[in-house]
């Protein structure tokens, strides 16, 4: 056995469970110092092989959640193998004639059995998903996992042989967590015959696709990330060796991570872009990523609505806007300004968070009688050098800054950021480990909105400011075309495609002058600007 490198202890471990991952990665703990540890209970029937010891723990040596997850999954799989070897050794030493006879009469390939079981579980999960009962499926699967483990711990007591129970355990673990799903994709029951010809690594196909298709930089970045996520699940494969089962294993892993059917129905076809290119270039005969879409349950996200007046009052009467509180998670002045900017522009969270000081400037235009006027605007545009991105080409635009925001001192905030040569106006926003700029701030805002301000309707989120701008713009008769241009909303109307950064400024200024939220009272400006 390879347990010599593991620290085995009795009793309780002084650690904090990573509750966000506990349902997926049982046994992954985070110590008070921030580093992760794997803790696994030794099955009762195997403890004699471990000198009576009860628990295995191993420090993973990292505080990074993604790295900890990778190391934990690998260690857990190694312990699975170790336990299986120990159990087999003990069983060989004390095996009953009846069990011996059954095993001899019915030899079982555990991997093949598990692969077949996984196919059945996927079909069952799809049925539950279509009925909106995914949580019920997960609960039943977890209960099944406990049952199979009990069979393994207690022997052939309820009709399943040990190999059958192990196969069901492996398949159930794969459907719940994605762990081992890629390995099952290569099991004899589902492994296809490899095609001939030179093997081309998937990464090389990506390079060829980039060179030939010359896609937008953000598309290259996003597809590169998707390929890396795929390879993290199935390993680095030649494109000829990728099968439909590998893609299904990737889908399982995404579900296990908590990705929604809507997310997965975008990610898998996006990955398929690369396989379509491989088909077009005669590298493979068919696209293995052509999967049936997952049924999309109508969720609260699809029913998002605007902030009503009571909810706006609750938010802007909170400690950030009334008492000058600046929680660490709120990233300094971003906590105060981002909700206000969103309410007065309808801009997306990332668009606001990545604003550069130069994106706030004064622009001239002609008013009535060709009189020359000017207005302060903020610009939302793609800038690869600065790492700025927008949702699509129609999202590039500039938006007049509302008089209320100017009265609160936003121009002073932008000027101070420019004087300090900051890369972003809201420079205290810290991206996630995966590089998502607004990931951490978004989580803070959700907690603040729900727990501190008491806005509990799941349909009301930061994106609701976008709905709010459109709603209140209609209420005060801002022209629809102007409202769409301010928010960067594509309508599909050919006439409305001629906008963006070149759209005439005057109608935008006049539309913004009309905009207000009836019954809304501005919070006081930040203490530093009074």
UniProtKB/TrEMBL annotation:
Keyword DNA-binding: yes
Core-binding (CB) domain segment(s): 200-279
CDD domains reported for this sequence: INT_C_like_1
Keyword Ribonucleoprotein included in the entry's annotation: no
Listed GO biological process terms: DNA integration; DNA recombination
Keywords: DNA integration, DNA recombination, DNA-binding
Signal peptide range in chain numbering: none
Protein's name in the database: Integrase
Organism: Brevundimonas diminuta 3F5N
Upper taxonomic lineage: Bacteria, Pseudomonadati, Pseudomonadota, Alphaproteobacteria, Caulobacterales
């Amino acid at each position: 056995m390879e347990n010599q490198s593991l620290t085995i202890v009795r009793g309780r471990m002084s650690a904090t469970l990573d509750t966000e991952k506990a349902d997926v990665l049982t046994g992954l703990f985070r110590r008070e110092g921030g580093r992760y540890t794997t803790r696994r209970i030794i099955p009762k029937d195997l403890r004699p092989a471990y000198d009576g010891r009860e628990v295995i723990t191993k420090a993973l040596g990292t505080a990074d959640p993604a790295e900890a997850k990778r190391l934990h999954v690998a260690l857990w799989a190694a312990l699975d193998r170790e336990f299986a070897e120990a159990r087999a050794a003990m069983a060989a030493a004390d095996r009953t004639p009846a069990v011996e006879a059954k095993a001899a009469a019915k030899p079982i390939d555990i991997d093949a059995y598990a692969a077949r079981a996984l196919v059945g579980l996927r079909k069952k999960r799809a049925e539950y998903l279509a009925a909106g009962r995914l949580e019920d499926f997960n609960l039943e699967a977890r209960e099944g996992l406990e049952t199979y483990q009990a069979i393994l711990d207690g022997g052939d007591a309820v009709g399943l042989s040990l190999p059958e129970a192990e196969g069901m355990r492996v398949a159930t673990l794969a459907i719940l967590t994605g762990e081992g799903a890629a390995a099952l994709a290569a099991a004899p029951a589902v492994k296809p015959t490899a095609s001939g010809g030179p093997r081309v690594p998937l990464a090389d196909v990506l390079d060829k696709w980039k060179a030939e298709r010359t896609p937008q930089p953000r598309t290259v970045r996003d597809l590169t990330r998707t390929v890396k996520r795929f390879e993290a699940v199935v390993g680095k494969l030649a494109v000829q060796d990728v099968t439909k089962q590998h893609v299904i294993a990737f889908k399982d892993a995404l579900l296990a991570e908590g990705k929604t059917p809507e997310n997965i129905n975008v990610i898998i076809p996006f990955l398929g872009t690369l396989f379509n290119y491989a088909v077009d270039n005669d590298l493979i005969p068919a696209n293995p990523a052509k999967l049936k879409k997952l049924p999309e349950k109508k969720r609260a996200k699809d029913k998002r609505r605007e902030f009503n007046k009571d909810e706006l009052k609750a938010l802007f009467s909170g400690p950030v806007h009334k008492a000058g509180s600046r929680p660490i998670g709120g990233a300094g002045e971003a906590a105060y300004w981002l909700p206000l900017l969103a309410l007065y522009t309808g801009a997306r969270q990332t668009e606001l968070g990545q604003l550069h000081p130069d994106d706030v400037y004064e622009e001239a235009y002609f008013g009535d009688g060709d009189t020359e006027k000017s207005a302060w605007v903020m610009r939302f545009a793609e800038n690869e050098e600065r790492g700025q991105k927008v949702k699509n080409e129609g999202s590039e635009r500039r938006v007049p800054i509302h008089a209320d925001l100017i009265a609160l001192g936003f121009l002073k905030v932008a000027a101070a950021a420019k004087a300090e040569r900051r890369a972003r106006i809201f420079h205290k926003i810290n991206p996630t480990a995966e590089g998502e700029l607004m990931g951490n701030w978004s989580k803070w805002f959700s907690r603040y909105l729900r727990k501190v301000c008491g806005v509990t309707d799941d349909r009301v989120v930061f994106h609701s400011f976008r709905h709010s701008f459109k709603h209140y713009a209609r209420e005060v008769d801002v022209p629809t075309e102007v409202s769409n241009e301010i928010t960067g909303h594509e309508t599909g109307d050919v006439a409305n495609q001629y906008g963006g950064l070149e759209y005439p400024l005057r109608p935008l200024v006049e539309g913004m002058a009309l905009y207000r939220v009836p019954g809304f009272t501005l919070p006081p400006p930040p203490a530093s600007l009074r």
